[in-house]
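Continuing the series of single-chain predictions for the mutant panel. This is the parent chain; the variants come on the following pages.
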Amino acid sequence: MFQNNSEFLDKIREYTKELVKKSELEYSQEDFEKSFLTQSSHTPFNIDAVQKIEYGRVEKEYVTDEYKKIYGLKIKKKAILLTDIMYFIEGEKKIINAIESEFPELNIDEIKAALRVMMIFMRSIECDEILEGE
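Parent structure:
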């Protein structure tokens, strides 16, 4: 027997599809939290964690002088995407060393590969809007 653990991801995909289709985000924090807790336990830690996260918009300027509105998982009421945190973690030697300590069977290249895939996965649930001329 298999159990699908994608309800949270399905909810995020629903947000991105509607965003692309209608050019506006139809979002419910209550539905977001419910979908997260459906596939995880209702521990105080999980409940507290999901209440600090939202799917929303962050405006960013890139070195290419390009501005984007990025819709994705972010810290609630802050312009910090979870991918921003993953980008940081990906290059942080202390974190890589901690993972190496916990999983000694992994080499540094495998750890870096795992972090890259996690970061790319996080990026895959974002939606970009290019802001021309701003």
